[in-house]
Write a structure and sequence with these properties.
The complex is a heterodimer. By secondary structure, chain A is α/β, with parallel strands linked by helices. In chain A, 35% of the residues lie in helices and 30% in strands. Chain A is built from three helices and six strands. In chain A, α1 runs parallel beside α2. Chain A is globular, with a radius of gyration of 13 Å. The N and C termini of chain A lie close together (10 Å). In chain A, 45% of the residues are buried. Chain B is an alpha+beta fold. In chain B, α2 runs parallel beside α3, α3 crosses α4 and α17 crosses α18. Chain B is rod-shaped. The chains are: A alpha/beta, B alpha+beta. Chains A and B meet through α2 and α3 of A and loops of B.
Chain lengths: 117, 598
Amino acid sequence: MRPGTIVVEGNSSEVTVTGYGELDLSNAGELGRALRDASETAERLTVDIRPATFIDTAVLEYIARTAANMLNRGKRLRVLTLKDSHPLYVLKTAGFQELVDIVTDDTVVWDGAGYAG
Amino acid sequence: MADLKRVLVVGDKLGAVETQTLVNAGCVLESVNATAEAAKTLASKHYDIVIIDPADLRFAVDASKAEADEGSRHLSPEIEWQLAIAEVVANCTEANLAYLDSNFNFVWVNQAYAEESGCMKEELIGRNHFDLFPDKENQQIFEMVRSTGQPYTVKEKPFIYELQPERSVTYWNWTLFPIRYGGDPVGTARGFALTLVNVTEDVRIRQEIEQLRENAEYRAAEIETIMSSMTDGVLIIDISGNIIWINQAGRQILGVSRDEPFDDWSSRFPFLGINGKPMSVEETAAYKVLQGEIIQDVSYTITTPDEKEVVLSVSASPVRDASGKIISVISVFRDISERMAFAKKQDDLLKRERRITNMLQQALIPPEVNYNITGCRVAVKYQPALLEAEVGGDFYDVFELGSGKIGILIGDVAGKGLPAAIRVAAARYAIRSYAYLDPSPGRVMTLANEALSKDPGNGHGMLTAFFAVLDVNTKTVTYANGGHEPPVVLTADGEIYEPDLLGRVLGILGGYDYAEATLEMRHGDVFILVTDGITEARPDATALFGKEGIIKYLSENPGASLNEIPDGLLEAARSHAGGSLQDDAAIVAFELVDMVEA
């Protein structure tokens, strides 16, 4: 299984944190730091997990914490996923619909580009 | 008596013995002091033999030629022969020879001189030396020789051809010898013999060698400075195993004072392997490197003179000469005693934490036994994480609430190890405590979430939990879901369905009211709860065991008893994942039974 990679893109007002491959305990901390840093400054923050093949509860926790912090500041975290994907199933099962804006978008098909694992 | 021979001896080169021999042979000897005088004498008289030093021949030739030009006198055949020999010898030598008149004009040069000067002989003769090769310092020396009458010799004197700057600096050994007639006073030299040898190449080679030596010494000093300032120990060992150099850091590490010799180092510093066993000389880094090996970060333990045990990390490489032969060994070593001690301490701490975590988890997770409670039977299965160090966050709980109600809990906290175990403790006892106060699962989850979300300590963090209350009297199960995998129900009729109730994960954000739902249960209906260790069992990223795997197992094993289902499901998930699970996993299955049966 491919270890995951975290990529941060954007500017001071809008940031996208993209997770590639397998997102689990081994890289959840990196994702968490990227989200924490971005959420402190960015007006609009998106977590793009369309290229993620798997996410576990450690990753969910960092997304949830970021979402909760943003909610406390009157903002909402946006999460991009593919339809019928494992990450979307996990998000729904965990009741994240009320914590974040889940946007399913199949228009971008990840072909492995950007994966550095 | 034979006819007398007239012999002219030029100069004082003939010794007394030779003189007497000639007299005895019937010769009549006449002598003159200089070749110039001899030339005049020869012009006026006839001699059978002339004895002259070869060094004086050149003048004799010129003088005799001058006389010959006057047509007043012819040289004897012997003199002609000797002059010819002298000319050949002068032109065969590599030395540059020249004869200058009293004003330093060239009178004669040999072939080597002409070639070295880059001129034809004809271009030199009659020209002034300093017009052709100007040099103020040399001119002063020449004038000094002329005025003092003393010859001058100099070695490796630099000279620059001003008219041929492309030749750069040249170096010469040369002698200027004044030539005077016998009665001439000092300072009235009639001419000068100049002999020069070009030693430019020798000087340059020597200068290059000197430069190389200086560079080498500089580099050596530089390297020594670097090695002396290193915090790592550096030592150089010759092929006999003797330490020939060691830096200060090396001495400090080995506990040897600055001036103490290292002659018997191998016996003074008995090496031990990292396992503490004594090592033979053949096992030491130096010996191995001398055999051609390169040693990288090998650990040894040595005992210093003050009985201190030091753990060294050693890297060593051979030093080879130009032919590739090993001539010495450079060994770089550092004291890693503290690092090793720290690593051991850390390892001990990890082991301790692991022991605490295991004990905590064992205390938190009920024994893996099947419960026979009045009206209800519960079967459980818990599979720890693969790695002992990574105790997982899955948990379950089964407890009687009284009045025929049984609380059944399953959950999963994010993370591993001691922090996860602490969260499990916080979550399990929060839910259990609220359940004793109010057995409404929705209410219990709401209160537990409030408590867990506000905990700033180690108990804080996200978790999923599914809490059900089975009422054996009403034959119902009421449940609330905190972001956990929904259950699967296998009915007594063999129907399989998934009660659809979702809710948010706990421990992140308070202010959330958890919904609850109630199902009627019949005898033979089995309620199955799992953690994601089961549903996310996978051989690769895309082929999850999933809910589909559970349904498939149940469909393919219609006769499986309650006690068999957890074991069977775990085995099916493990098999799907290729033999082992990546995460820990928990399964809880329960069913109603007759009061009497239970």
